[in-house]
Design brief:
The complex is a heterodimer. Chain A is an alpha/beta fold. Chain A has a single domain, classed as Flavodoxin domain (Rossmann fold, 3-Layer(aba) Sandwich), CATH 3.40.50. In chain A, 43% of the residues lie in helices and 20% in strands. In chain A, helix 1 crosses helix 6. The termini of chain A are far apart. By secondary structure, chain B is an alpha/beta fold. Chain B has a single domain, classed as Alpha-Beta Barrel (TIM Barrel), CATH 3.20.20. Chain B is built from twelve helices and twelve strands. In chain B, strands 1, 2, 3, 4, 5, 8, 9, 10, 11 and 12 form a ten-stranded parallel sheet that branches. In chain B, strands 6-7 form a two-stranded antiparallel sheet. In chain B, helix 3 crosses helix 5 and helix 10 crosses helix 11. The radius of gyration of chain B is 20 Å and the shape is globular. The chains are: A alpha/beta, B alpha/beta. At the A-B interface, helix 2 and helix 7 of A face helix 5, helix 6, helix 7 and helix 9 of B.
Chain lengths: 209, 381
């Protein structure tokens, strides 16, 4: 059976965290869908809070700690990514952004990504569209169309709960489909030569964009 | 094995008293440090090149020429010469001139610098950093090796019937190290020509340096300059020493905590664990430095950064005394004992000249590129 790896980046700050709760439900739905499609799923979770100091240290000094490197490698090696942040001041949290700032700029190229967020009011929901989606578009990720926002009332009963579940299932289905139709991810080797000497001398083979 | 120091040439306030040296003081201090390096028995002094404050060394050959006149043994080098934004014609001229004045005690390390705006200030584009490196170095090599050059390329005006003067001393161009932090293409460039590769090392974990050096060694062998362990490798490192390690840590901590390049990120302890920075006793520096060969192999040049983080000149000179008296003699002995016979020393003007003369006597072309056979890198230049 073919294997695929899912990674979760969850930037909640409290324990227990509603951000992590949302991430878990999304990844569970995605795993179920991939299983139905005949894949075995490996799951890795990055709680960004656990790397908070290391992320800032990486920004300050230019290299990651060993545990942060392991977290970055986990994301780089994933076939699909679920990225979930609390909404602060109408955008992703600074820590969430900083984590992706220290991830190599080309790591997520053509990588399926599902974006999701939690917030204190449903009126924050479009932050997913004006903050998260453009960032992942810049990174040239394949962001699935459905983004999932969970407001406090979504954790309650009644129709709201059903609505969150349906959004999760729709988004998870989209992510699973994107993962399923791709070959397993092969993270780029930063030490690999991608051009011959002659190409380098002639100025070809280097990305000048 | 060669031991020396490299300086960035930064003007950094002393965080313990807020004192900021003037540019004149800093420039004179760099000269004093270089003279001291020779006095205590070190082999190499290398200066940075920068074109923006708070750095002073914009004109390396002016400084190195002055130091050459006041030293007799010290090898004068750079860390690094900007191959991207300097005109290769001017590099060819300046360093050949310096060779004559310094009787051949000259090599240089090419690099790309660390400040984005330097590119536009010199009419270039940072996104061309790698093509500029390859292009400009190709021209630089030709200017040193061909008496008359016709040349046309992307990044400077064409040359017709151009002769770079003075010609390199004895017809032997200065040895070139290619410095890199993270560009595998630079390891490839150094390997292709059989030049030296200098891994900056100082702000990066050892796993990173190991991979870069491994790439260079593999490609050096691929291009026929010798076996991988015969490639010419240099490493940076930074130290602060006192007789007792606790004293070293106590004295250096405020400098570490506030220095622009170190401070406000990882703690001193985290930083020393992950990078070559060693703060402690001379014995600790000896032990740590000896571990470098465990992940890069036997190497030819070790440069220490000692005038960092705003340390006062007096302290830096004390560091050089400790290096010269207690650390380097032991390191020389230990590294020499560990190094197999087929691993060459770093090339010098004398060894390059001898290799050239031997090759000429044997009828082979010392500049053939890539060279065949399994001779050492020195012989293939």
């Amino acid at each position: 059976m073919s294997r695929r790896r899912l990674a979760v980046v969850s930037a909640g700050l409290r324990v227990p965290s509603s951000t992590r709760l949302l991430a878990d439900r999304i990844v569970e739905a995605t795993s179920d869908e991939l299983s139905r499609r005949g894949f075995e799923v490996d799951l890795g979770v990055v709680e960004v809070r656990e790397h908070a100091h290391d992320v800032v240290n990486h920004l300050a000094t230019g290299f990651p700690s060993e545990s942060l490197q392991a977290a970055l490698d986990l994301v780089a090696g994933a076939d699909g990514l679920v990225a979930v942040t609390p909404i602060f001041n109408a955008s992703y949290s600074g820590l969430f952004k900083s984590f992706f700032d220290v991830l190599g700029e080309r790591t997520l190229v053509d990588r399926p990504v599902l974006i999701a967020a939690t917030g204190g009011t449903v009126r924050h929901s479009l932050a997913l569209e004006h903050a998260l989606r453009p960032m992942f578009s810049y990174l040239r990720a394949a962001v699935v169309p459905t983004a999932v926002f969970a407001a406090p009332e979504d954790w309650g009963g009644g129709d709201a709960q059903g609505s969150l579940r349906r959004r999760i299932e729709r988004a998870a289905g989209e992510l699973a489909a994107e993962v399923a139709r791709r070959e397993p991810a092969r993270p780029a080797d930063p030490y690999a030569l991608t051009a011959t000497f002659e190409q380098l001398l002639s100025g070809e083979g280097t990305d000048q964009g | 094995m060669q031991f020396g120091i490299f300086t960035v040439g930064d003007v950094t306030p002393d965080p313990t008293n807020g004192r900021v040296p003037s540019e004149r003081e800093r420039i004179k201090a760099m000269v004093t440090i270089a003279l001291k390096a020779e006095e205590v028995g070190l082999d190499v002094f290398a200066t940075g090149e920068h074109h923006n404050p708070p750095f002073v060394p914009s004109s390396p050959t002016t400084m190195l020429g002055y130091i050459a006149a006041r030293t007799s043994r010290l090898i004068l080098s750079t860390a690094t010469t900007l191959i991207t934004t300097n005109d290769p014609v001017k590099i060819a001229e300046d360093y050949a001139m310096l060779q004559h004045l310094a009787d051949g005690r000259v090599d240089l390390m090419l690099g790309r610098g660390n400040t984005g705006p330097v590119y536009p200030w010199f009419g270039q584009d940072i996104r061309n950093a790698i093509p500029l490196t390859f292009h400009n170095y190709d021209l630089l090599r030709r200017l040193w090796r061909e008496d008359v050059v016709d040349w046309q390329g992307r990044f400077r005006a064409p040359l017709q019937s151009f002769t770079s003067t003075p010609r390199p001393l004895d017809g032997v161009p200065p040895f070139v190290w290619h410095g890199a932090i993270r560009s595998p293409e630079v390891a490839e460039l150094a390997a292709y020509y059989g030049d030296g590769f200098f891994a900056n090392h100082i702000f990066w974990p050892k796993e990173h340096t190991q991979r870069m050096v491994e790439l260079y060694r593999t490609r050096f062998a691929h291009y026929g300059h010798g076996s991988p362990e015969q490639a010419i490798v240099g490493l940076g490192g930074q130290v602060f020493m006192r007789k007792n390690s606790q004293d070293a840590v106590r004295e250096f901590r405020p400098y570490f905590d506030n220095a622009p390049v170190y401070g406000h990120g990882p703690s001193l302890e985290e930083f020393t664990a992950r990078t070559p920075l060693t703060v402690g006793s001379p014995q600790q520096v000896i032990d740590r430095t000896l571990t470098f060969r465990e992940y890069v192999g036997d190497y030819q040049r070790q440069l220490f950064l000692v005038d960092h983080a705003g340390l006062p000149l007096k302290t830096v000179l004390e560091q050089l005394d400790i290096l010269g008296e207690e650390v380097v003699p032991v390191l020389r002995r230990e590294f020499d004992a560990l190094r197999p016979a087929h691993v060459p020393d770093a090339p010098t003007h004398a060894s390059l000249k001898a290799a050239r003369d031997a090759a000429a006597a044997g009828g082979s072309d010392p500049d053939a590129r890539p060279a065949g056979g399994a001779t050492a890198g020195v012989g293939n230049r």
